[in-house]
Design goal:
This protein is mainly alpha-helical. The chain has helices at residues 20-41, 44-70, 74-99, 105-133, 138-149.
Length: 150
């Protein structure tokens, strides 16, 4: 998949309900596809696109998802702290990828992929189910994510 995913608009009189968890999972899959495309091509433009996608996605989660998670107390606050630690590691690697010469990017992209993959698995198997169990509504989360995205 190339470019940004386009969502269909609701028909007149309909409202579009967005599942926030599905939105984030869709972004995870899109980034995974871009990593696969980089692995196949080694194209620096794709490496830059990966960095841009990760930066935007991380900011969105940090502004909407993690504060929401923290609102439930110490146990969920620790989950948010762990996720933000993973984001810090990913941001550091993104910076290194951006500064690296073309021929030096592959090992950094591989490290970045390992960090992203571990973080995504943790979000999708621990964090999202915990939020659902706590009653964080998928549609309201989706609205918050869309509003934060602008």
């Amino acid at each position: 998949m190339s470019g940004t995913a386009k969502r269909s608009r609701p028909h007149e009189g309909e409202t579009q309900m967005s599942d926030g968890y599905a939105m984030l999972e869709h972004e995870h899959r899109h980034v995974e596809e871009r990593f696969d495309a980089y692995e196949q091509s080694g194209d620096d433009a794709i490496a830059e696109e990966i960095c841009d996608l990760l930066t935007a996605h991380g900011e969105l989660e940090e502004h909407v998802l993690y504060p929401r998670l923290r609102s439930f107390g110490d146990r969920t606050s620790q989950l948010a702290d762990n996720a933000e630690d993973a984001h810090d590691q990913i941001e550091n690697l993104v910076g290194r990828v951006r500064l690296a010469a073309s021929g030096d990017r592959l090992p950094l992209i591989e490290q970045l992929w390992a960090a992203v993959d571990a973080h995504v698995r943790e979000e999708e198997t621990e964090l999202f189910p915990e939020m659902r169990d706590l009653g964080v509504d998928a549609e309201s989360l989706g609205r918050e994510l869309e509003e934060a995205r602008g």
